[in-house]
Amino acid sequence: MEDIDSPRIKPGAAQQAIDDLRWLGLDWDEGPDIGGPQPSYVQTERLVLYETALHQLKQRELVYPCTCSRSEVAAASSAPHAGQEGPRYPGTCAKNMANSANELPAGAYSWRLRTTDRIRTLSDGLAGEVCCNVFRELGDFVVAKADGTPAYQLAVVVDDHDMQISEVVRGDDLLPSAFRQLELYELFGWLPPRFIHVPLVVGEDGRRLAKRHGDTRLATFREASVRSEALIGLLAWSCGLRSTTEPVSPRELLADFAWSRVSREKFVFTTAMRDELLNS
Asked: In sequence order, what are the residues at sequence separation of 6 or more whose Cβ sits closer than 8 angstroms to the Cβ of residue 259?
């Protein structure tokens, strides 16, 4: 359960996510609600692991304290936005050493990773071979925030390694993050998982589905007594797993599932589709 971005975490969001997934017909062998071999499946309860990893990076001078604000980075950078984390960092504070933090006020700096200046190739399970020079295209990135909490990139790498995750499936808007995470996997000497980045569901304007497209939350369909199989059927059709939108359960899709059948095109979720589901 990713809850380290505390200012943006809404009360009840964690339970709603679990309820929504179970309504869809999904289940899991371990997790925050049922436990398992891990002491915790909630990131805010795993902070010691992230602090230990960050300490290792500091000792090896692989990170440096950065006092730049987001607005300063945006003003100094001429590069376009890459993914969800903004423009390339121009390296303003890269001259700092780890012990430079001793001379800075607490809360006045974040920690950035010194990225490598070489081309990486990722064999994505759906997108195919993708190349990226992290230093030149994305820049040094934040691994710990000014408030002392870990940033997304560090936390998920530590979690996935600790939990022995072998396959990561997520939206293709996070493809740049895979290259950032590969930097960390290599520096720690850990084996990375297999990455599979799937196209996003977008609105009729071509932008990722959001509030501007109306209420498309899973909870909305669940509370409207929509059959989960109806939504699964639409989604299975949208990505090429079924030739019709007939209702189907996740378990029924397992028998003939293959990544080779999954479309690489974004799916446009229209207002008409939403209304049809809500009125079914």
From this structure: 125, 126, 196
Residues belonging to the chain: 280
> Which residues constitute the domain of residue 223?
201-278
Do 99 and 224 lie in one domain? The reply is: no
pLDDT at 96 over 60: yes
pLDDT digits 0-9 by tens, 138-158? 999 999 999 989 999 999 999
Residues 205, 233: Cα–Cα separation, whole Å: 23
Query: Same domain, yes or no, for 45 and 130?
Result: yes
Phi, psi of 108 (to 5 degrees): -100, 0
Q: Measured at the alpha carbon of residue 277, what is the angle toward residues 261 and 228, in degrees to the nearest 5?
A: 65
User: Structure tokens of 88?
Assistant: 């390339």
3-state secondary structure 188-209: HCCCCCEEEEECCEECCCCCEC
| 132 Cβ neighbours under 8 A, 6+ residues apart | 119, 120, 122, 138, 176, 179
Tens of pLDDT, residue by residue over 103-116, are: 999 999 999 999 99
What burial class does residue 247 get, using C-beta atoms within 10 Å of its C-beta: 0-12 exposed, 13-18 middle, 19+ buried? middle
pLDDT at 79 over 60: no
Domain match, 65 and 188 both? yes
Q: Among residues 199, 178, 198, 181, which one has the least CA distance to residue 190?
A: 181
